[in-house]
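Example 3.2
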Amino acid sequence: MSDRSRQGNATLAVRNLTKHFPVRQDLFNTLFGDKQVVHAVDNVSFNIGREETFGLVGESGSGKSTTGRLIARLTEPTSGGVTLDGVDWFALDRRELRRRRRDVQMIFQNPFASLDPRWTVQSIVAEPLATHGVATGAELRRRVAELLVAVGLEPSHAQRFPHQFSGGQRQRIGLARALALSPKLLIADEPVSALDVSVQAQILNMMQEIQQRYRLSVLFISHDLSVVKYICDRVAVMYLGEVVEVTETDTLFRAPLHPYTQALLAAIPEPTTKRRTFAAIDGEIPSPIHPPSGCRFHPRCPRAQALCSQKAPAFEEHAPGHWAACHFVETPAPARGRRGE
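Structure, written as tokens:
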């Protein structure tokens, strides 16, 4: 674990970030009923330090990808704020946002859908450089060649089309495009989930090398805790639009506080010779249109009591750098080895 995660000077600060999507309703409900919304993200807060890799994990539908898209301003928030190096990200007008978009770049989950099949690799990687007036002509071609080499491809690949590459190679092209403008923050939304396991390790190792070489801060979004354990310095766990726990990666796997985090860890496949310390999670994630009252996890929580359905728990620091939102926090005995074992 690097000391980067302990730096107080954050590159990114997310404060009470909220996004509610309106639900399409029929005419009667529109005129006479309550307007329904999907609580995609609710009051999410966290920091990402300089050169830190910060993980965002949770089940499908927990709000991870929406959070990433809000930070990248691909989706506008309902409320809340994001600052990048002290700059209010949501206060930027269209002109200023266009100029500063180079600071935040994104890698998408599906490398087969995120690249325009009609464009050559040269055009795909060169587009942000040309759009922001960074390079033209021979200099532009040289920069594209450098970026392709940086992600493990050949300069000659610039003349090919996306369909001529494997999934892992396409994700490398997407990373080259994201690096073109030398961003401060890279948002990686499930970057290896669509790839074969053998290719995942190659991409993750390359991302670590790129992160160190370019001195990037990284928001790494994933549902796979094994991947997060390998690559992230700190982790935030999301459930039904809310962050329920934040701590260093080692601590999360050694001594998780929130019962949802414990349930996620219990679901990781392990050799049968190892005994599980936590019970696996039961039931289905509730509807984000009508989230449960109080603690949103209480209908599935083995630790739930009457208070849990009546009052939302405060998000509190229970140990230095270890935050959790639970009325009845219990520190379990160590259940797993340290990171990397």
